[in-house]
Amino acid sequence: MSHQPTGIALYDTAADEAAAAVIAAYSTSFGMATRLLGSRARTHVRNIYALVRVADEIVDGPAIEAGLDATQAAALLDALQEETMAAIDRRFSSNLVVHAFARTARECVIGADLIDPFFASMRTDLTVAAHDDASHDSYVYGSAEVVGLMCLQVFVNAGQPSPSGPSPELVDGARRLGAAFQDVNFLRDLDHDEATLGRDYLGIATGDHDREAILDRIDADLAAAAAVIPQLPADCRRAVIAAHDLFAELSRRLRADPAPAVRVRVPDIVKAGLIARALVGASPRRTGA
């Protein structure tokens, strides 16, 4: 006879479900990919994504639309970071998304070395409009590479009796995959970032960088990440291959259309094909293929 959870177990379940609702609302592609994860890691990755998304929304459109200025948004971001770190220590938060993330952080050994750079990059969005090479790299590390490293901590530690560190090869692959994802999204959102948010992440508007060179860097990062995916635990590989291939397809479409009239996306039927390839254990697609 099954028993419904009560007390803290019920609260934990509600927190996990709240995080899952965030990812379902914000990202169909990433949501599809996470469904390919084994149950050991799936909930934890959703918990990471939910906190990342809430922080991102503080510094982007929704907070602005609600009438917050940069000072108010910064205060909210500071409070979210403080609550996140406190929840990891005390094992409880009244914020369901934070509570879910804190549970994941404790089990999978996600600490301040990854959390602090993430919030630092989010804070940058409130103060920096145009990035040079150094600030771009720092921003991408905190906003995307550390998220890949958080997921890698889940892949190697979730459900394990004792934590362990990932290999240097996997660390490099996680960072480069995260960087590729972020740069692809910068290219997809180039017009919106410049016209609506007043931001230039890539230096294209100023003529400091060439679009094709950025796509070459993206494809090199995707290829490097693909090379180490076979080293991941078996129950995580299909999801990572699906995510990799979705962004490889976006890169291909961005290269094929230098001046898209609308935001570049992967049609649902193509997404389904990429998911199907991952499901049957196909190798990651070659970049540009």
User: SSE order, as H and E?
Assistant: HHHHHHHHHHHHH
Structural class: mainly alpha
Radius of gyration: 19 Å
Number of helices: 13
The total strand number stands at 0
* Average pLDDT, all residues: 92
Helix content: over 70%
- Give the N-terminus to C-terminus distance in angstroms: 51 Å
Shape label: globular
Return residue spans where pLDDT drops below 50 for at least 5 consecutive residues: none
- Tell me about the largest β-sheet: none
- What proportion strand? under 5%
Q: From the structure provided, what is the oligomeric state, counting identical versus distinct chains?
A: single chain
Organism: Microbacterium schleiferi
InterPro entries: Isoprenoid_synthase_dom_sf, Squ/phyt_synthse
Protein name: Squalene/phytoene synthase family protein
Question: What is the secondary structure topology, with strand pairs?
Answer:
Layout lengths: L6 H20 L1 H7 L4 H21 L1 H5 L4 H21 L5 H13 L3 H13 L8 H25 L10 H21 L1 H6 L15 H18 L5 H23 L11 H12 L10
Helix pairs in contact: 1-3, 1-6, 2-12, 3-6, 3-7, 3-8, 5-6, 5-7, 6-8, 7-8, 8-9, 9-11, 9-12, 11-12, 12-13
Structural account:
71% of the residues lie in helices and 0% in strands. With 289 residues, the chain is mainly α. The longest helix has 25 residues, at 133-157. It is globular. The protein has helices spanning 7-26, 28-34, 39-59, 61-65, 70-90, 96-108, 112-124, 133-157, 168-188, 190-195, 211-228, 234-256, 268-279.
